[in-house]
Every structure is written in structure tokens, then in C-alpha cells.
Amino acid sequence: MVNYSVTIDILPTREREWVTYMLQHIKEVLDTGHFVDFTFKKVKPLVDGYERYLIEYFSESMLEYDRFEANGASKLRADHDTRFAGAFKYGQSITEYTDVLNAVFYGGDGRSLFKHELAL
């Protein structure tokens, strides 16, 4: 499982418009077929005068995320960036979930999430 997280700081004067836009934008991201779920969260308090939001998209694998990046991510980002130029700041990160316990203690490959048994 891969978590593609996007943090957006948006000016309060553009927040309502941005949230409305994001409803469609998130649908377009999901419609690419590379993500299976998402979350949309408002983070408190204000950060340097901006409203902060965290959007997380969940993909089955890095391969699916890479396909998203190769096939349309830049177009989706460009549309957002053009509409809200000067009104936002953003950051992003990719987290690939691994089963470290399985890999370290049981010789697994680290990708079989939560499929280990503890032998005490």
C-alpha cells in the first residue's frame, strides 16, 4: 500500500472556492484508476495565515503510483496551480507501507502487511 500525501495551505479568502474545486479534482484523481481510496482533512490551527488541508490518496503499489505520475498527474497539478496561483503553498510525500516486523524477524520481504504471527 502506498500513501500519496499532499498538504495544501490555502489563503482563507480562497478557501471556499478551493474546497469546491477539490471535490471535482479528487474525483478526477480517483478516476485515473491508480488510487483505491482517499482522505480529505482540515488541519488546525491556521499556519502563517493560511488554512491547511491534508489530502491522502491510497494506491495498491508503487507501480500504480508511478503510473499515475507518468499518465496525467502533471495535467491535474497544472490545472490546480493555474486556478489558485499565488493563493496556496503545498508539500507532498510518498509513504510505502511495509511490514518491517515480518521482514526482520521472519525473513519476509517486508511487503506482506500484518501477515505475521508472534511466537512468544
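^ that was protein a. below is b, sequence first then the C-alpha cells
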Amino acid sequence: MLLLIPLLPFLGFLLNASFGKRVSKAAAGAVACGAMAGSFLVSLAAVWQLAGLPHESRAIANQVFTWITSGDFTAAFTLRLDPLSSVMILVITGVLLMLYYHPSVPQAYADMKDLQFVVSSDKDACRSWQIGGRSLAAE
């Protein structure tokens, strides 16, 4: 189950990257938002399962595959969830989900196409941001 947390957004990226401009922005946004929502829901389920474990053994480990085996030595690719990593997966997937669903994010990306960073030799205005020809530097 832990493998779905990074895998769902990656699959959403692969879908959006594969189809490119052949799909509408709304469809690409729905795929991205759906992937992040799925990842957040799997994170919530994993944290719920972790919270139900006894305090002494509060960790979940999922072995995905065995990477190297040589005699008695075995190196496995294992995903582990403990209380600290559970906070991190909820923060990361939750914040990204809020960013994807926030209504002003598409407008912010639309405004960024006019964003320029200007470096000047003028001593008073060494660096300034410009959007659509308007300077954002303090005057």
C-alpha cells in the first residue's frame, strides 16, 4: 500500500506527459488533481493503520522487491512508515493537493508567462522583477 503514495503522482505525470497537448488543460488538471487526491487518501489510510498499532511497534514496512541476494546477505527495497514519516507524507501530499485545487493557481501560472528577471548595471536598482513591463522593485 505504501508504494501507491509515490506511484500515483508518478503515473499522473506519465499520463500528462504522454498525451501532452492532445488533451485539454482541464483534463490534464483533473488527472494531476486525481493523482494527488489518491496519494493523499492512501497516506491517510496508512497513517490510520499506523495509529492503530501498539505504541512499541508503531511502524509499517512493505518490501517491494529484493534488490540483491548473495549467500546470507539480502538487500531489499523496502518502504517504511513510522510516526515521523507519517507526518511528512501527510504534509507533502496535503499541501500539494491544496495547491492543485486552489482556484488562483492557474491564474498565477498564466501570469508567470510575462515574468522577467532583469539584472541592471544601475547601482540603485541592481535587480528587479518585471511582470508585463511593470517593475515590482521597491521605489
